[in-house]
Design brief:
With about 450 residues, the chain is of the alpha/beta class. It has helices at about 5-20, 35-50, 70-80, 95-110, 125-135, 150-160, 175-185, 205-215, 240-245, 310-320, 330-350, 375-395, 435-450, and strands at about 115-120, 140-145, 165, 190-195, 220-225, 255, 270-275, 355, 365-370, 400-405, 420-425. The chain folds into two domains: about 95-320, Type I PLP-dependent aspartate aminotransferase-like (Major domain) (Aspartate Aminotransferase, domain 2, 3-Layer(aba) Sandwich); about 330-450, Aspartate Aminotransferase, domain 1, CATH 3.90.1150. A seven-stranded mixed β-sheet has the order 1-7-6-5-4-2-3, sandwiched between helices. It has a four-stranded antiparallel β-sheet with strand order 8-9-11-10. Helix 5 (about 125-135) packs across helix 6.
Length: about 450
């Protein structure tokens, strides 16, 4: 790794920031550790950090890990010289304004101009707030989500003391409408969670059909777009069912999206959006010590979290200033490149008899899953794990996922009814993955040969 240009840009921006406070009288900071001791600790820290997978490299194609944009890293570091707290304007005046602007730009992706929204520490907390509001409006009623939805929804139900029910998914990992209606007919469903981009395989629930069905039974609809939300920018590059789902997202009651996934942000940057600003009444509280300097809106008044990193808002604002959230431009092109990489890998896998792809068709977003051809399901799973290890020895890092065997080509690997397969999974969310596909494929085939699948 070489020195990145953004470090020089950060030095220049730091000088500009210091000039903003040049009118203050000089003071001597409290003595800290000497420079030599700090250098030793930082060198040790850097060495310890080397015990990681190379998440920043295109040969890392395993989990949902995308490096923050250099401008986000620089803006975050710049803001940390002040360390603002976006719980209140007293703690983060500039960063609160930047958060409001950045969140407004995200809401515009879904056609919302009037809404309640803010950044959160994670998609988990964004989902929790949305379902907490649903619980306030539909007290005691159930939460339902696809069996392929993120496990956090069941946990959130436990935290909120709301019953949770999982809805069966089809062979593409999408919520089955017939199973959803069976659950709705029983009554007492307060919120339906539709996932746009499941963690396992990037499946997109049929939101355009879920919405009218849920409305018929009086349930709210929350969209967990933590992973896939930004793909609404390039819906033209998706297949028709996914395009229809993204076209309907503006009619949902709430949305969760994670800028720290496809939004090029450091971790600690989720976002929750609520379509009806009137739900802000559920957040109302009074504090004897927090709100004195302004009568304007405090983000802490519409958030379940209290202290929140203002630096996260600064980094997001700077990134969106550099890379606007438009269909044309570098940000959208990065999404398209990851999507093209996924389709390329899927085509190669389907053309190679050693692998078994999803019978229902190609990936909906940028996540590819596949099984290894074998006489029995147990053998297929074992070989997948062996290929996973052999890939890692070649610096190609994939992931493993458990999926129903019935979702794969029935002639690829026999398995008992209801059995699951351990499959290989690749998240191709870096724009560089498109150009590195030949290198990824070469390593995958070599690993396959080592595992005895050649």
């Amino acid at each position: 790794m070489t020195r990145e240009p953004f470090l020089d840009l950060l030095d220049a921006a730091t000088q500009t920031l210091q000039a903003e406070f040049a009118g203050l009288p000089e003071f001597a900071p409290a003595p800290g550790a000497d420079a030599e001791a700090m250098a030793r600790v930082l060198a040790e820290t850097a060495h310890r950090l080397g015990d990681n997978y190379p998440y920043f490299h295109p040969l890392y194609a395993g989990q949902m890990l995308k490096p923050p944009h250099p401008v986000a890293r620089a803006a975050y570091a710049l803001a940390m010289q002040i360390n603002p707290n976006n719980h209140a304007l007293d703690g983060g005046r500039a960063s609160s304004a930047m958060e409001i602007e950045a969140v407004r730009a995200i809401a515009a992706l879904f056609g919302w101009t009037e809404f309640l929204g803010h950044l959160t520490s994670s998609g988990t907390f964004a989902n929790l707030e949305s379902l907490w509001v649903a619980g306030q409006l539909r007290p005691g009623q159930r939460i339902v989500a696809s069996e392929q939805a993120h496990f956090t929804h069941r946990r959130i139900g436990g935290v909120l003391r709301l019953e949770f029910a999982a809805i069966a998914a089809d062979a593409r990992g999408r919520m089955r409408l017939d199973a959803l209606e069976d659950e709705l007919r029983q009554g007492g469903v307060g919120a339906v969670v539709a996932t746009l981009g499941t963690t396992a395989m990037g499946a997109v629930d049929p939101l355009d059909e879920i919405l009218p069905l849920a409305r018929r039974y009086g349930a709210r609809v929350h969209v967990d777009a933590a992973y896939g939300g930004y793909f609404g920018l390039i819906a033209d590059a998706l297949d028709a069912p996914a395009r229809r789902a993204y076209a309907a997202i503006g009619a949902a009651d709430s949305i969760a999206i994670d800028p720290h996934k496809h939004g090029l942000q450091p971790y600690g940057c989720g976002c929750v959006l609520l379509r009806d600003p009137a739900v802000g009444r559920f957040y109302q509280h009074d504090s004897p010590y927090t709100y004195f300097t302004s009568k304007d809106l405090h983000l802490g008044e519409i958030s379940l979290e209290c202290s929140r990193a203002g630096a996260a808002a600064v980094a997001l604002w700077a990134t969106q200033r550099l890379l606007p959230l438009t269909n044309e431009g570098a940000f959208a092109e990065g999404l398209r490149r990851g999507r093209r990489a996924a389709l390329d890998l899927d085509r190669r896998l389907r053309a190679d008899g050693r692998f078994v792809s999803l019978a229902a068709g190609p990936p909906e977003l940028d996540i590819v899953v596949w099984a290894v051809r074998a006489a029995r399901g147990e053998e297929s799973s074992r070989r997948a794990r062996e290929i996973f290890d052999a890939c890692a020895r070649r610096d190609l890092h994939l992931a493993l996922v458990q999926l129903p065997a019935a979702w794969f080509d029935a002639h690829g690997c026999a398995a008992e009814q209801g059995a699951t397969l351990t499959c290989l999974r690749s998240v191709l969310m870096k724009p560089e993955h498109e150009a590195w596909m030949d290198a990824i494929w070469t390593r995958l085939l070599a690993a396959c040969g080592e595992a005895g699948c050649g």
